[in-house]
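Batch manifest line 253
LIGAND: 2-phosphoglycolic acid
JOB: complex structure
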Amino acid sequence: MRKKIVAGNWKMYKDKSETIELISQLKEKLSSYTPEVEIIICPPYTSIELAGELIKNSKIFLGAQNMHSEIEGAFTGEVSGKMLKSFGVEYVILGHSERRSYFKETDEFINQKIKRAIEFDIKPIFCLGETLEERENGKTFDVVENQLTKGLSGISRIDLEKVVVAYEPVWAIGTGKTATPEQAQEVQSFLRTKISELYDSEIASKVRILYGGSVKPENAKDLFKQPDIDGGLIGGACLKADSFYQIILAAQF
Ligand code: PGA
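JOB STATUS: finished
ARTIFACT:
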């Protein structure tokens, strides 16, 4: 049985005082009842250290939203896995569609980052998904297969155990337009089959595959009930403690 994950991607939201406010509200909710769900928050870099201190001795794990593939060097504005690790970061979102589109990240670069994260014992949350145009042209499965294969290129079976995959259809991110549970399940079951072909069925049955894209308290349960949806990567709805907590509760059944 795969343990469900609910990860919050804060994106470029929350300054210092807002970080304190959101985490204390979330901790308060979790103190009355914490379900058996892996809870991850991914604040911006500026709040990583503070968030790490605030969630100490809680059941919340610390994640980052990106990292560079190099360990160190002349890369102005970038942050490495080595740096993240030194602040206790345990997960990192890689290949998010906003990184792919606004910052022109390629599958090859994402693959290098995934390998580097694993090297530093940080678990990658590896995002992939098709655009609306690709879906309408019937290319969804080709696109996600290509992203999956390139992203996991050269990653051993043993290292794959550390990877979390997140299917995030681009047309559903931040648009309020969620994939139906059936649409998400269809792609996620396809991804699991592909993982099984690339590796084997035993490891494929262990890999957690999250859904992301306008997950809200109202739709989370139906999505998470699907056999190949092992939780969610949450954007907008993780910025308020109440809605994030409701989604965490929806992951438990
Ligand atoms: P959203 O973002 O929940 O706001 O659609 C999801 C994501 O970008 O990971």
